[in-house]
């Protein structure tokens, strides 16, 4: 049985302002196993992105605790590549920030880029790449420091539908091949079903885990193949009801 790598224990988070306080999360409890891909969906404004900040330690719980083993990599809604840096130098950026820009780490980052289709674009600039290729470069940048847990904050939301499907396929393949643990925040039910091993449904604020489902597709992990399977529509209908009930 795989070990837990991230766990929320009865977490409560209160935001304080000069006029009032807002309870963003309460009795928030769940865990993520090593190598697991977990997607989180919930009503608009329930605090899904806040949950990633709690996981990474950027926010501290008002009550309860968050436990994690290992380092984090964060992938944002937009690729956020610096336009004046080549793709290679963008990928090296986390290594520079962490002062880990050794020849060994640079070679590992280059190898990842070459392994996943960026070999011919390392000396190109972001403006010369498609949106899908830029998002792939953003993922390689996130993987450059070899994090244990990937936090994915709606990383496909800025892409058009067709590109989004292709990039989902790319990202799922890379994450699973590199055997990374992933926690995905998304507002897209289909995306959650197609990508994740398990889907958590949050309640309205104050957020807690209302439902948890193992995505059983008979061992099929490719997002596009899952979308074609008969089980897909059943999962979509169930999650839609839970999300909007």
Please characterize this protein's 3D structure:
With 245 residues, the chain is α/β, with parallel strands linked by helices. Helices cover 37% and strands 25% of the residues. Helix 5 links the parallel strand 6 and strand 7. It is globular. 34% of the residues are buried.
Topology:
Blueprint: E1 4-16, E2 21-33, E3 37-41, H1 48-55, E4 63-68, E5 72-75, H2 87-97, H3 103-115, H4 131-143, E6 149-153, H5 161-177, E7 181-185, H6 189-195, E8 198-202, E9 209-214, H7 223-228, H8 230-244
Helix pairs in contact: 2-3, 2-4, 4-5, 6-8
Our measurement of the CA-to-CA distance between the termini, rounded to an integer number of angstroms, reads 34 Å
What strand order characterises the main sheet?
Answer: 5-6-7-3-8-9
Please give the domain count. Answer: 2
Uncertain segments of ≥5 residues (pLDDT<50)?
A: none
CATH arch. level architecture of the largest domain: 3-Layer(aba) Sandwich
Tally of strands: 9
Determine and state the CATH class of the largest domain: Alpha Beta
Name the structural class: alpha/beta
Large-scale geometry: globular
Report the average pLDDT across residues: 92
- What is the helix content? 25-40%
Which radius of gyration do the C-alpha atoms yield? 18 Å
Would you identify the CATH H-level superfamily of the largest domain? P-loop containing nucleotide triphosphate hydrolases
CATH topology category name of the largest domain: Rossmann fold
Helix-strand string: EEEHEEHHHEHEHEEHH
Beta fraction:
25-35%
Major β-sheet profile: 6 strands, mixed
